[in-house]
Amino acid sequence: MTTAEIGVFGGSGFYAFLDDIEEVEVETPFGPPSAPPVIGEVGGKRVAFLPRHGRRHELPPAQIPYRANVWAMKELGVRRIIGPCASGALRADLALGEFVVCDQFVDRTTGRTDTFYEGPLTTHVSAAEPYCPDLRGILAETARELGITVRDGGTVVVIQGPRFSTRAESEWFQRMGWDVINMTQYPEGYLARELELCYATIAMVTDHDVGVGGAEPVSHETVIRVFNENNARLRQLLFAAIPKFGPQPDDVCASALRGARVE
Is 112 among the domain residues? Predict the structure, then answer.
């Protein structure tokens, strides 16, 4: 099978990434992924790209086959994954198009299958530091080098979707001090950790959540418009950062299963 070392998940408005590509079919124990991955090269690195919502955005957030997607990346040999995502800002000082390299998430989803370990071997994987510190550092540093406005660190609250927040929910999230809001970061990033893969996200601010700085209710049309306007910068960042990714270090990601199993 064709292999890759780096994986990229595409989100809303981000359905294509590589040019000279080879499409591969990957079978997983959890059914087919959102779309067949495509593999190409970026700066000498073999990169697998998979649009998490499908090629035509046919999969709503709660219906994305997260386990199949992450497993497919591992099957291809990927050890390090970037999962960019469209996000709403919960802070008025975050500008549209600004990037946030998150370091924490808060899970507010319901009913999503969010583990590979359903027994009989009980496995408790720590999520204290859910995003890869090495990948995060490279992404933030590279963004600054390119003159791209970026926040290094931030908390994303992940809601079930497909609806957007009520005013009361958004006010609560703001009072809690969380930074951005999204519908797909959980369980994608945590599932990567369960397989001891590195994972980091680039949250692109596509709107201000309702009530933030007097913002009106969010529309999907606005989200996609802002994402499309800034896709070129996202591609620029990824193409500059990926060649800097070294082999997976023996870090919190690679060692996630040590001491996690009850035997």
Answer: yes
